[in-house]
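Hi everyone, sorry if this is the wrong subforum. Our group has a chain we'd like a structural model of before ordering constructs, and none of us has done structure prediction before. Sequence below.
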Amino acid sequence: MLTTSMLQVQHRLLNEEVYRFILTSWLTHGSLENFFSTVRQRNSIPTPCEFKSALRIITLAQYLRYSKHSSYADDEDSFYLGDLSDYTHSPCIPAQGETDASETSQTSEQDHDGGLVVFEEYKQGSLTHPSQKAVTLMDICETVFLAKMPTLVHQNQISDKLASLIREAASTMCLPDCHHIKEKLIARFIHARLPLFAKEQTGKEIATAKLEGAQSSKSMAALRIP
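Answer:
Right subforum, don't worry. Here is the predicted structure as tokens:
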């Protein structure tokens, strides 16, 4: 993945941005320095076991949360939505004989939003790539989800109400009716998105509870100081 990323960056800078040259070694120099400084935070001379443990923690931590002061979230939002679109629409693809419906939901082209799917393919061509219409529908679903969930989270029958709102927002989209692709994609999106939202909210509540507990402990300790 690193080599592929370097080649793509080099191709863009040299061919599209008309750079005269690029020193690819400098692209990883800062990352390596940051990595080794993080590993040495607990022990300036870590043992092989400590280094291996720190490597695992750092590798997992970068996927669990991102830095608030970084720009990764803005850059990768479209990739995450494209990856979710692939997961959402893959089981909804009609049979190969249904050409119109199948081409509406998937494409053989690897667009920008589906770039993450390419990196996850252990065998080339084994994964499907969402069509532009499918990604547009997922974009509408995500927009409605983020706008309405703060109020729907305290109500009953969230899935039905959310599906109704998404249908209204995507009423102008024209998709084949023969296989009810739009309904299947909306239902699949809601089924996949709600657990992610619940997990995110649970993490926020746990973090808030820990923060409140730490603050209350400090305040009680301060009162006992003579």
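For your construct planning: The chain has nine helices and two strands. The longest strand covers residues 106-107.
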